[in-house]
């Protein structure tokens, strides 16, 4: 069955019943007998959909987790209250004092902070490698346990060769996790490309309406058990209201992604014609670092693009004049956004050919592309 069709059917229960599953709120789950209580506790050790106690999620969260596991081609998927909590939850089960973690240099900045502060304080050694690495020999140590990737890169969208990287990492016995928030369980399937863990900030496209926080870690193979135990022991789950909002968001994920992608393409093509613009970063552009790999491994792009303006152009004043684009953190909602970007700041291997002008990251929302372009054009006109 095509994924577009599956999106309409996730969470369906017996008929007669609601088309969209209702919110189930619960902490305590009641049993009539001790035997039933004990059987439930035994069953939940291996079955993540067993309703046993609110801390293990209610049926609403289980339905969302099952849908995401299916989209990610995973054996299991675990939910977290935010994307950053999911990043932490994907790393800590596998790392202890004295272990070494390799992180791609182009990682999401909050993930970098987590590695450099919390993990480092707990005795995990952290090193960064360039995004185009497919042979880890220069970076591994005897105590290396895990590799954390993100593709395309945060803010600059370099595309990693995940199949090649995973082959090399697995030959060395390493676990590979990838932040798949860009692909959001729709455009890109890291587990099918060889990764053990795929992390998604559902706050972005899965929620899709700028009103919900969520994180998910999908896993397959030997990584699953430790992740399952860790999420249970650390009390990580997603509340039923947020799970409901994400299940509802999933119904239109495919449609929304199509429009976000089309609008971003229109903006990319248009920005490239402007004399004020020095460079446009977008993984769909021919010549963009790794764009051939993206074309091979993914099915389309999302609404993000980053524009580097010519030196001396006041890009922040340009953003202030926009009416349809607001300034704000995050992305993946229906709304258009513009934010100052600094993809190279804090990196060990900054882009060699970066320009000196200001950079803005745009998120193309679901407005009509003609209106977005008219808004941008009006701001250029007033510069
Ligand atoms: C937004 C984001 C996160 C964190 O998600 P939150 O829900 O904001 O905590 C993690 N990784 C990437 C790539 C993101 O874009």
UniProtKB/TrEMBL annotation:
GO molecular function (one): cysteine-S-conjugate beta-lyase activity
Reactions catalysed according to its record: L,L-cystathionine + H2O = L-homocysteine + pyruvate + NH4(+)
Enzyme's top EC category: lyase
Residues recorded with modification N6-(pyridoxal phosphate)lysine: 204
Annotated keywords: Lyase, Pyridoxal phosphate
SUPFAM superfamilies: PLP-dependent transferases
InterPro entries listed in its UniProt record: Cys/Met-Metab_PyrdxlP-dep_enz, Cys_b_lyase_bac, PyrdxlP-dep_Trfase, PyrdxlP-dep_Trfase_major, PyrdxlP-dep_Trfase_small
Cofactor: pyridoxal 5'-phosphate
GO biological-process terms attached to the record: L-cysteine catabolic process to pyruvate; transsulfuration
EC annotation from Swiss-Prot or TrEMBL: 4.4.1.8
Residue ranges, annotated region (Disordered): 1-22
A matching Pfam family: Cys_Met_Meta_PP
NCBIfam families found in the cross-reference section: cysta_beta_ly_B (TIGR01324)
Family per similarity comment: Belongs to the trans-sulfuration enzymes family.
Protein name as annotated: Cystathionine beta-lyase
Organism in which the protein naturally occurs: Mesobaculum littorinae
Organism ancestry: Bacteria, Pseudomonadati, Pseudomonadota, Alphaproteobacteria, Rhodobacterales
Gene this protein is translated from: metC
């Amino acid at each position: 069955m095509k994924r577009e069709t599956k999106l309409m059917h996730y969470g369906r229960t017996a008929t007669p019943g609601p088309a969209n599953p209702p919110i189930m709120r619960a902490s305590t789950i009641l049993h009539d007998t001790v035997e039933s209580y004990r059987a439930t506790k035994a069953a939940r050790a291996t079955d993540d959909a067993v309703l046993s106690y609110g801390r293990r999620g209610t049926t609403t969260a289980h339905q969302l987790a099952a849908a995401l596991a299916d989209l990610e081609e995973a054996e299991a998927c675990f939910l977290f209250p935010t994307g950053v909590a999911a990043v932490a939850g994907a790393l800590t089960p596998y790392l202890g004092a004295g272990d070494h973690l390799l992180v791609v240099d182009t990682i999401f900045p909050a993930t970098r902070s987590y590695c450099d502060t919390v993990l480092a304080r707990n005795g995990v050694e952290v090193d960064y490698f360039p995004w185009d690495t497919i042979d880890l020999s220069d970076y591994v140590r005897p105590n290396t346990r895990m590799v954390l990737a993100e593709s395309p890169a945060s803010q600059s969208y370099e595309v990693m060769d995940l199949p090649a990287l995973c082959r090399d990492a697995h030959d060395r016995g390493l676990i590979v996790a990838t932040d798949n928030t860009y692909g959001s369980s729709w455009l890109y399937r890291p587990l099918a490309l060889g990764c053990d863990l795929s992390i998604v900030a559902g706050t972005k496209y899965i929620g899709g309406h700028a009103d919900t926080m969520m994180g998910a870690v999908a896993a397959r193979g030997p990584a699953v058990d430790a992740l399952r135990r860790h999420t249970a022991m650390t009390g990580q789950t997603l509340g039923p209201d947020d799970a409901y909002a994400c299940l509802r968001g999933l119904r239109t994920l495919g449609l929304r992604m199509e429009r976000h992608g089309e609008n971003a393409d229109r903006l990319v093509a248009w920005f490239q014609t402007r004399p004020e613009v020095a460079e446009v970063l977008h993984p769909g552009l021919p010549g963009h670092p790794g764009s051939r790999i993206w074309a091979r491994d993914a099915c389309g792009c999302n609404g993000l693009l980053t524009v580097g303006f010519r030196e001396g152009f006041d890009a922040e004043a340009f953003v202030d004049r926009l009416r349809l684009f607001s300034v704000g953190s995050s992305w993946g909602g229906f709304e258009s956004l513009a934010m100052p970007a600094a993809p190279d700041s804090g990196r060990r291997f900054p882009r060699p050919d970066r320009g000196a002008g200001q950079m803005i990251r745009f998120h193309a929302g679901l407005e009509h592309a003609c209106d977005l372009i008219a808004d941008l054009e009006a701001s250029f006109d007033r510069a």
